[in-house]
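Sorry to interrupt, but I need a hand with the structure work. Go ahead and set the record down below:
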Amino acid sequence: MKILKPFSIPAALFLVIALLVYSCTKDDDYEYFIDAYQVASYSSAGIETMMGLAMQAYPDLQEIDPYIEDGVRVYRLTYRTILKGDYIKASGLVSVPATPGNYPVISFQNGTNTLNSNCPSENPSDYFYQLVEFVASMGFIVVIPDYIGFGSSADVPHPYLLKVPTIESVCMMLQAVAEAPGKFGDISVKNEYYLIGYSEGGLATYNTHQELESDHAHYGLNLRGSACGAGPYDLEQMMEDMKTAVSYPVPAYLGYIINAWTYYDYIENTVPELLKEPYATRLATLFDGNHSISEINAQLTTSIADLLTDEFRNNGSSQAFESVTLAMEWNSAMAYNSEIPLLLVHGDADTQVDVSNTESLYDLMLLQGTSSALCTKTILPGLDHGEAVVPFMIEGLKFILNLRDN
Protein backbone atom coordinates (compact mmCIF):
# COMPACT_ATOMS: atom_id res chain seq x y z
CA MET A 1 0.00 0.00 0.00
CA LYS A 2 1.28 3.46 -0.86
CA ILE A 3 1.80 5.60 2.26
CA LEU A 4 1.15 9.31 1.76
CA LYS A 5 3.55 11.68 3.48
CA PRO A 6 1.89 14.29 5.72
CA PHE A 7 1.80 17.90 4.56
CA SER A 8 4.65 20.00 5.84
CA ILE A 9 3.69 23.32 7.48
CA PRO A 10 5.32 25.42 4.71
CA ALA A 11 3.50 23.41 2.05
CA ALA A 12 0.17 23.83 3.83
CA LEU A 13 0.73 27.59 4.18
CA PHE A 14 1.60 27.86 0.49
CA LEU A 15 -1.60 26.02 -0.46
CA VAL A 16 -3.75 28.29 1.73
CA ILE A 17 -2.12 31.42 0.28
CA ALA A 18 -2.59 30.14 -3.28
CA LEU A 19 -6.28 29.45 -2.67
CA LEU A 20 -6.77 32.89 -1.14
CA VAL A 21 -5.04 34.59 -4.08
CA TYR A 22 -7.15 32.62 -6.57
CA SER A 23 -10.40 33.38 -4.74
CA CYS A 24 -9.53 37.08 -4.60
CA THR A 25 -8.55 37.36 -8.25
CA LYS A 26 -11.35 35.20 -9.69
CA ASP A 27 -14.49 37.11 -10.59
CA ASP A 28 -17.17 34.97 -8.95
CA ASP A 29 -19.84 36.44 -11.24
CA TYR A 30 -18.43 34.40 -14.12
CA GLU A 31 -17.69 30.74 -14.58
CA TYR A 32 -15.64 31.09 -17.77
CA PHE A 33 -15.04 34.79 -18.51
CA ILE A 34 -11.83 36.32 -17.08
CA ASP A 35 -11.08 39.55 -18.93
CA ALA A 36 -11.52 41.44 -22.20
CA TYR A 37 -10.04 44.61 -23.62
CA GLN A 38 -10.28 46.34 -26.98
CA VAL A 39 -7.39 45.88 -29.42
CA ALA A 40 -8.73 47.39 -32.65
CA SER A 41 -11.65 49.15 -34.31
CA TYR A 42 -12.62 49.66 -37.95
CA SER A 43 -15.15 52.00 -39.51
CA SER A 44 -17.60 50.70 -42.09
CA ALA A 45 -15.89 52.89 -44.70
CA GLY A 46 -12.50 51.43 -43.80
CA ILE A 47 -13.86 47.90 -44.05
CA GLU A 48 -15.40 48.65 -47.46
CA THR A 49 -12.04 49.97 -48.68
CA MET A 50 -10.16 46.87 -47.50
CA MET A 51 -12.82 44.55 -48.92
CA GLY A 52 -12.57 46.38 -52.22
CA LEU A 53 -8.86 45.60 -52.35
CA ALA A 54 -9.51 41.96 -51.40
CA MET A 55 -12.08 41.68 -54.20
CA GLN A 56 -9.35 42.35 -56.75
CA ALA A 57 -7.83 38.99 -55.80
CA TYR A 58 -11.13 37.26 -54.94
CA PRO A 59 -13.95 38.65 -57.11
CA ASP A 60 -16.48 36.29 -55.51
CA LEU A 61 -16.31 38.40 -52.35
CA GLN A 62 -18.79 40.63 -54.17
CA GLU A 63 -21.46 38.09 -53.21
CA ILE A 64 -21.15 38.92 -49.51
CA ASP A 65 -20.05 42.55 -49.77
CA PRO A 66 -23.67 43.88 -49.69
CA TYR A 67 -24.03 42.53 -46.14
CA ILE A 68 -21.31 44.84 -44.81
CA GLU A 69 -23.18 47.61 -43.02
CA ASP A 70 -21.35 48.57 -39.85
CA GLY A 71 -18.02 49.28 -38.21
CA VAL A 72 -16.55 46.76 -35.78
CA ARG A 73 -14.67 46.66 -32.48
CA VAL A 74 -12.22 43.86 -31.75
CA TYR A 75 -11.43 42.60 -28.24
CA ARG A 76 -8.88 40.21 -26.79
CA LEU A 77 -10.67 37.79 -24.47
CA THR A 78 -9.22 35.54 -21.77
CA TYR A 79 -11.36 32.77 -20.34
CA ARG A 80 -11.23 29.46 -18.50
CA THR A 81 -11.15 26.14 -20.27
CA ILE A 82 -10.21 22.61 -19.26
CA LEU A 83 -7.06 20.66 -20.09
CA LYS A 84 -6.48 17.19 -18.63
CA GLY A 85 -9.14 17.79 -15.99
CA ASP A 86 -7.79 21.14 -14.76
CA TYR A 87 -8.90 24.69 -15.50
CA ILE A 88 -6.38 26.76 -17.44
CA LYS A 89 -6.45 30.26 -18.92
CA ALA A 90 -7.06 30.46 -22.67
CA SER A 91 -7.60 33.34 -25.08
CA GLY A 92 -8.95 34.50 -28.41
CA LEU A 93 -10.55 37.40 -30.25
CA VAL A 94 -14.12 38.69 -30.16
CA SER A 95 -15.27 41.07 -32.90
CA VAL A 96 -18.59 42.90 -32.45
CA PRO A 97 -20.64 45.40 -34.49
CA ALA A 98 -20.15 49.05 -33.60
CA THR A 99 -23.91 49.57 -33.37
CA PRO A 100 -25.54 48.46 -30.09
CA GLY A 101 -27.90 45.54 -30.46
CA ASN A 102 -28.71 41.86 -29.97
CA TYR A 103 -26.65 39.70 -32.33
CA PRO A 104 -26.13 36.01 -33.20
CA VAL A 105 -22.67 34.47 -32.84
CA ILE A 106 -20.27 32.94 -35.37
CA SER A 107 -17.28 31.00 -34.06
CA PHE A 108 -14.36 30.70 -36.50
CA GLN A 109 -11.86 27.86 -36.02
CA ASN A 110 -8.61 28.53 -37.88
CA GLY A 111 -6.34 26.06 -39.66
CA THR A 112 -3.01 24.65 -38.57
CA ASN A 113 -0.67 27.17 -36.97
CA THR A 114 2.61 26.59 -35.12
CA LEU A 115 3.68 30.16 -34.34
CA ASN A 116 2.40 31.75 -31.16
CA SER A 117 3.05 35.17 -32.69
CA ASN A 118 0.60 34.28 -35.45
CA CYS A 119 -2.34 33.13 -33.33
CA PRO A 120 -5.45 35.35 -33.44
CA SER A 121 -5.03 37.18 -30.13
CA GLU A 122 -1.33 37.86 -30.73
CA ASN A 123 -1.78 39.05 -34.30
CA PRO A 124 -5.27 40.57 -34.70
CA SER A 125 -4.08 42.75 -37.60
CA ASP A 126 -3.13 39.74 -39.73
CA TYR A 127 -4.81 40.15 -43.13
CA PHE A 128 -6.80 36.92 -42.95
CA TYR A 129 -7.87 37.42 -39.34
CA GLN A 130 -9.03 40.92 -40.29
CA LEU A 131 -11.28 39.46 -43.00
CA VAL A 132 -12.82 37.22 -40.34
CA GLU A 133 -13.16 40.12 -37.89
CA PHE A 134 -14.99 42.11 -40.57
CA VAL A 135 -17.79 39.51 -40.56
CA ALA A 136 -19.06 41.31 -37.44
CA SER A 137 -19.94 44.16 -39.82
CA MET A 138 -22.65 41.86 -41.22
CA GLY A 139 -24.47 41.73 -37.90
CA PHE A 140 -22.68 38.98 -35.98
CA ILE A 141 -20.59 38.61 -32.86
CA VAL A 142 -17.49 36.85 -34.21
CA VAL A 143 -15.53 34.58 -31.87
CA ILE A 144 -12.03 33.40 -32.89
CA PRO A 145 -10.40 30.98 -30.39
CA ASP A 146 -6.61 30.82 -30.23
CA TYR A 147 -6.82 27.13 -29.23
CA ILE A 148 -4.93 25.77 -26.24
CA GLY A 149 -1.18 26.17 -26.70
CA PHE A 150 -1.35 29.74 -27.98
CA GLY A 151 -1.90 33.19 -26.51
CA SER A 152 -2.61 32.97 -22.79
CA SER A 153 -1.92 29.20 -22.79
CA ALA A 154 1.32 29.33 -24.79
CA ASP A 155 3.20 27.62 -21.95
CA VAL A 156 1.71 24.22 -22.88
CA PRO A 157 1.94 22.32 -26.19
CA HIS A 158 -0.98 22.70 -28.58
CA PRO A 159 -3.11 19.50 -28.42
CA TYR A 160 -3.14 19.26 -32.20
CA LEU A 161 -6.22 17.49 -33.63
CA LEU A 162 -7.19 16.12 -30.21
CA LYS A 163 -10.97 16.11 -30.00
CA VAL A 164 -11.80 16.77 -26.36
CA PRO A 165 -9.49 19.71 -25.51
CA THR A 166 -10.35 21.35 -28.84
CA ILE A 167 -14.10 21.08 -28.32
CA GLU A 168 -13.82 22.38 -24.76
CA SER A 169 -11.66 25.35 -25.74
CA VAL A 170 -14.23 26.39 -28.38
CA CYS A 171 -17.39 25.78 -26.32
CA MET A 172 -16.06 27.45 -23.18
CA MET A 173 -15.04 30.55 -25.14
CA LEU A 174 -18.60 30.74 -26.49
CA GLN A 175 -19.92 30.40 -22.95
CA ALA A 176 -17.52 33.10 -21.71
CA VAL A 177 -18.89 35.54 -24.31
CA ALA A 178 -22.49 34.59 -23.50
CA GLU A 179 -22.10 35.15 -19.77
CA ALA A 180 -20.37 38.55 -20.05
CA PRO A 181 -21.87 40.45 -23.01
CA GLY A 182 -21.54 43.78 -21.18
CA LYS A 183 -17.76 43.51 -21.51
CA PHE A 184 -18.03 44.26 -25.24
CA GLY A 185 -19.91 47.54 -25.12
CA ASP A 186 -23.68 47.82 -25.48
CA ILE A 187 -23.93 44.43 -27.17
CA SER A 188 -26.17 41.55 -26.15
CA VAL A 189 -25.81 37.92 -27.26
CA LYS A 190 -28.66 36.28 -29.12
CA ASN A 191 -28.90 32.53 -28.41
CA GLU A 192 -28.21 31.70 -32.05
CA TYR A 193 -24.85 30.14 -32.92
CA TYR A 194 -23.01 29.24 -36.12
CA LEU A 195 -19.65 27.52 -36.60
CA ILE A 196 -17.17 27.83 -39.46
CA GLY A 197 -13.63 26.51 -39.83
CA TYR A 198 -11.02 25.27 -42.29
CA SER A 199 -8.43 22.44 -42.22
CA GLU A 200 -7.69 21.76 -38.53
CA GLY A 201 -10.56 24.17 -37.97
CA GLY A 202 -12.77 22.11 -40.27
CA LEU A 203 -12.36 19.07 -38.04
CA ALA A 204 -12.74 21.24 -34.92
CA THR A 205 -15.95 22.73 -36.33
CA TYR A 206 -17.46 19.35 -37.18
CA ASN A 207 -16.63 17.84 -33.79
CA THR A 208 -17.97 20.91 -31.97
CA HIS A 209 -21.13 20.79 -34.11
CA GLN A 210 -21.73 17.21 -33.04
CA GLU A 211 -21.00 17.99 -29.38
CA LEU A 212 -23.34 20.99 -29.23
CA GLU A 213 -26.12 19.05 -30.96
CA SER A 214 -25.79 15.85 -28.91
CA ASP A 215 -25.40 17.63 -25.55
CA HIS A 216 -27.47 20.78 -26.05
CA ALA A 217 -28.90 20.63 -22.54
CA HIS A 218 -25.41 20.91 -21.03
CA TYR A 219 -24.20 23.87 -23.07
CA GLY A 220 -27.48 25.71 -23.64
CA LEU A 221 -26.17 27.07 -26.95
CA ASN A 222 -28.69 27.05 -29.80
CA LEU A 223 -26.63 25.84 -32.79
CA ARG A 224 -28.23 26.80 -36.11
CA GLY A 225 -25.64 25.48 -38.57
CA SER A 226 -21.98 24.91 -39.42
CA ALA A 227 -19.65 25.13 -42.40
CA CYS A 228 -16.61 22.83 -42.45
CA GLY A 229 -13.76 23.18 -44.93
CA ALA A 230 -11.11 20.59 -45.88
CA GLY A 231 -10.96 18.90 -42.49
CA PRO A 232 -8.79 15.82 -41.85
CA TYR A 233 -11.92 13.95 -40.77
CA ASP A 234 -10.54 10.40 -41.10
CA LEU A 235 -7.28 10.59 -39.18
CA GLU A 236 -6.79 6.83 -39.20
CA GLN A 237 -6.93 6.69 -43.00
CA MET A 238 -4.76 9.81 -43.32
CA MET A 239 -2.06 8.25 -41.14
CA GLU A 240 -2.20 5.06 -43.19
CA ASP A 241 -1.91 7.05 -46.42
CA MET A 242 1.08 8.97 -45.04
CA LYS A 243 2.84 5.79 -43.92
CA THR A 244 2.47 4.12 -47.31
CA ALA A 245 3.38 7.20 -49.36
CA VAL A 246 6.81 7.72 -50.85
CA SER A 247 6.76 11.34 -49.78
CA TYR A 248 4.46 13.83 -48.07
CA PRO A 249 4.69 17.59 -48.79
CA VAL A 250 4.06 18.81 -45.21
CA PRO A 251 5.91 16.56 -42.74
CA ALA A 252 5.23 19.19 -40.07
CA TYR A 253 1.64 17.88 -39.84
CA LEU A 254 2.89 14.39 -39.04
CA GLY A 255 5.42 15.72 -36.55
CA TYR A 256 2.73 17.90 -34.94
CA ILE A 257 0.51 14.86 -34.33
CA ILE A 258 3.31 12.75 -32.88
CA ASN A 259 4.60 15.55 -30.65
CA ALA A 260 1.18 16.42 -29.21
CA TRP A 261 -0.24 12.93 -28.92
CA THR A 262 2.78 11.52 -27.12
CA TYR A 263 2.99 14.55 -24.82
CA TYR A 264 -0.67 14.25 -23.79
CA ASP A 265 -0.43 10.43 -23.46
CA TYR A 266 -2.96 9.67 -26.15
CA ILE A 267 -0.54 7.11 -27.57
CA GLU A 268 1.71 4.79 -25.61
CA ASN A 269 4.59 4.56 -28.08
CA THR A 270 7.60 6.80 -27.59
CA VAL A 271 8.78 9.27 -30.20
CA PRO A 272 11.90 7.15 -31.05
CA GLU A 273 9.57 4.22 -31.79
CA LEU A 274 7.81 6.33 -34.40
CA LEU A 275 10.46 8.64 -35.88
CA LYS A 276 14.00 7.97 -37.04
CA GLU A 277 16.94 10.05 -35.93
CA PRO A 278 17.81 12.87 -36.05
CA TYR A 279 14.09 13.74 -36.23
CA ALA A 280 13.05 11.95 -33.02
CA THR A 281 15.49 13.97 -30.91
CA ARG A 282 14.77 17.17 -32.81
CA LEU A 283 10.97 16.97 -32.62
CA ALA A 284 10.19 18.57 -29.22
CA THR A 285 12.32 21.63 -30.00
CA LEU A 286 10.35 22.34 -33.18
CA PHE A 287 6.88 22.73 -31.65
CA ASP A 288 7.66 25.39 -29.06
CA GLY A 289 5.58 28.15 -30.64
CA ASN A 290 8.61 29.82 -32.21
CA HIS A 291 8.88 27.96 -35.52
CA SER A 292 6.73 28.36 -38.63
CA ILE A 293 5.42 25.36 -40.55
CA SER A 294 7.94 26.00 -43.31
CA GLU A 295 10.78 26.13 -40.78
CA ILE A 296 9.60 22.86 -39.24
CA ASN A 297 9.31 21.24 -42.66
CA ALA A 298 12.93 22.21 -43.33
CA GLN A 299 14.03 20.43 -40.14
CA LEU A 300 12.18 17.23 -41.06
CA THR A 301 12.05 15.41 -44.40
CA THR A 302 9.38 14.77 -47.01
CA SER A 303 10.72 11.22 -47.48
CA ILE A 304 8.50 8.93 -45.42
CA ALA A 305 11.06 6.12 -45.44
CA ASP A 306 13.62 8.48 -43.91
CA LEU A 307 11.18 10.06 -41.44
CA LEU A 308 9.29 7.12 -39.93
CA THR A 309 10.85 4.06 -38.32
CA ASP A 310 10.69 0.92 -40.45
CA GLU A 311 8.68 -0.86 -37.76
CA PHE A 312 6.01 1.84 -37.59
CA ARG A 313 5.88 2.32 -41.33
CA ASN A 314 5.61 -1.39 -42.17
CA ASN A 315 3.82 -2.75 -39.09
CA GLY A 316 1.86 0.25 -37.87
CA SER A 317 -1.35 -1.77 -37.65
CA SER A 318 0.19 -4.38 -35.35
CA GLN A 319 -0.54 -4.70 -31.64
CA ALA A 320 2.71 -2.86 -30.88
CA PHE A 321 1.11 0.32 -32.27
CA GLU A 322 -2.46 -0.36 -31.20
CA SER A 323 -2.66 2.83 -29.15
CA VAL A 324 -1.87 4.88 -32.27
CA THR A 325 -4.69 3.22 -34.20
CA LEU A 326 -7.17 3.65 -31.37
CA ALA A 327 -6.24 7.30 -30.84
CA MET A 328 -6.62 8.05 -34.54
CA GLU A 329 -10.01 6.36 -34.59
CA TRP A 330 -11.27 8.15 -31.46
CA ASN A 331 -10.19 11.62 -32.57
CA SER A 332 -11.60 11.29 -36.09
CA ALA A 333 -14.98 12.72 -37.07
CA MET A 334 -17.80 10.32 -36.22
CA ALA A 335 -20.70 10.28 -38.69
CA TYR A 336 -24.15 10.47 -37.11
CA ASN A 337 -27.74 11.50 -37.83
CA SER A 338 -27.62 15.30 -37.58
CA GLU A 339 -30.71 17.48 -37.61
CA ILE A 340 -28.82 20.78 -37.82
CA PRO A 341 -27.69 22.15 -41.23
CA LEU A 342 -24.12 21.29 -42.14
CA LEU A 343 -22.05 22.32 -45.18
CA LEU A 344 -18.92 20.40 -46.18
CA VAL A 345 -16.51 22.09 -48.63
CA HIS A 346 -13.23 20.83 -50.13
CA GLY A 347 -10.93 21.55 -53.07
CA ASP A 348 -10.62 18.54 -55.35
CA ALA A 349 -6.91 19.20 -56.01
CA ASP A 350 -5.95 19.22 -52.31
CA THR A 351 -2.50 17.64 -51.87
CA GLN A 352 -2.39 18.05 -48.09
CA VAL A 353 -5.82 16.79 -46.97
CA ASP A 354 -7.30 14.54 -49.62
CA VAL A 355 -10.80 15.40 -50.82
CA SER A 356 -11.84 11.82 -49.96
CA ASN A 357 -12.07 12.99 -46.33
CA THR A 358 -15.05 15.15 -47.22
CA GLU A 359 -16.55 12.76 -49.77
CA SER A 360 -16.50 9.85 -47.31
CA LEU A 361 -17.84 11.86 -44.36
CA TYR A 362 -20.69 13.18 -46.47
CA ASP A 363 -21.64 9.68 -47.64
CA LEU A 364 -21.46 8.31 -44.10
CA MET A 365 -23.63 11.13 -42.73
CA LEU A 366 -26.35 10.22 -45.22
CA LEU A 367 -26.01 6.53 -44.36
CA GLN A 368 -26.54 7.44 -40.70
CA GLY A 369 -29.85 9.03 -41.63
CA THR A 370 -28.92 12.70 -42.06
CA SER A 371 -31.10 14.34 -44.70
CA SER A 372 -29.35 15.49 -47.87
CA ALA A 373 -31.38 18.68 -47.48
CA LEU A 374 -29.54 19.37 -44.20
CA CYS A 375 -26.07 18.01 -44.98
CA THR A 376 -24.71 19.40 -48.24
CA LYS A 377 -21.30 19.40 -49.87
CA THR A 378 -19.50 21.67 -52.31
CA ILE A 379 -16.39 20.48 -54.14
CA LEU A 380 -14.23 23.34 -55.45
CA PRO A 381 -12.67 22.32 -58.77
CA GLY A 382 -8.92 22.65 -59.29
CA LEU A 383 -8.09 24.13 -55.88
CA ASP A 384 -5.30 22.93 -53.59
CA HIS A 385 -5.40 23.26 -49.80
CA GLY A 386 -4.25 26.87 -49.44
CA GLU A 387 -6.02 28.05 -52.60
CA ALA A 388 -9.41 26.95 -51.29
CA VAL A 389 -9.37 28.92 -48.01
CA VAL A 390 -11.03 32.15 -49.18
CA PRO A 391 -13.44 30.42 -51.62
CA PHE A 392 -14.50 28.19 -48.72
CA MET A 393 -15.08 31.21 -46.46
CA ILE A 394 -17.26 32.81 -49.12
CA GLU A 395 -19.32 29.62 -49.54
CA GLY A 396 -19.53 29.15 -45.77
CA LEU A 397 -20.66 32.71 -45.09
CA LYS A 398 -23.29 32.54 -47.83
CA PHE A 399 -24.57 29.35 -46.22
CA ILE A 400 -24.69 30.93 -42.75
CA LEU A 401 -26.24 34.21 -43.95
CA ASN A 402 -28.96 32.21 -45.68
CA LEU A 403 -29.70 30.32 -42.43
CA ARG A 404 -29.81 33.55 -40.45
CA ASP A 405 -32.04 35.44 -42.84
CA ASN A 406 -34.53 32.67 -43.67
The radius of gyration is 22 Å. The chain has a mean pLDDT of 92. The domain at 240-330 is CATH 1.10.260.160 (434 Repressor (Amino-terminal Domain)). Residues 9-25 form the longest helix (17 residues).
